[in-house]
């Protein structure tokens, strides 16, 4: 049985593992590569982001939506992001917090896609 997500080290594990998949992905990898030249600051920001989201630990600063709004993102990108994210969580963890992490990621993807679609005058929903 896999352990549940319980601390910052677990966040580092899933963030690093997830973004290694993202970098290799033919659909979403190029979008990230176009805007991230040094992955270390991005990964550190993601550790802080998920630490705040999951454990309420202060430290994340930024506006994630504003960073994503100018990117050429559409429904398939969010669906792929969620597939890779959920696969990563399932590979490493099992339990209530792992399930909650996947749920929060799904809600974020849905919200981002909804806001982006609204900005472009349309409506789209993530189906995963």
TrEMBL record:
The keyword Transcription does not apply. Coiled coil: none annotated. The keyword Aminoacyl-tRNA synthetase does not apply. InterPro entries: Globin-like_sf, Globin/Proto, Hemoglobin_trunc. GO terms for molecular function: heme binding; metal ion binding; oxygen binding. Keywords: Heme, Iron, Metal-binding, Transport. This is Globin. The lineage of its organism: Bacteria, Pseudomonadati, Bacteroidota, Sphingobacteriia, Sphingobacteriales.
């Amino acid at each position: 049985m896999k352990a549940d997500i319980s601390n910052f080290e677990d966040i580092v594990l899933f963030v690093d593992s997830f973004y290694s998949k993202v970098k290799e992905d033919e659909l979403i990898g190029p979008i990230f590569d176009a805007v991230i030249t040094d992955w270390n600051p991005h990964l550190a920001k993601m550790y802080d982001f998920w630490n705040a989201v999951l454990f309420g630990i202060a430290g994340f600063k930024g506006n994630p939506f504003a960073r994503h709004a100018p990117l050429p993102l559409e429904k398939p990108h969010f669906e792929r992001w969620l597939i890779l994210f959920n696969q990563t969580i399932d590979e490493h963890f099992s339990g209530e917090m792992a399930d909650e992490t996947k749920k929060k990621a799904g809600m974020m993807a849905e919200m981002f896609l909804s806001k982006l679609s609204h900005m472009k005058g349309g409506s789209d929903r993530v189906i995963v």
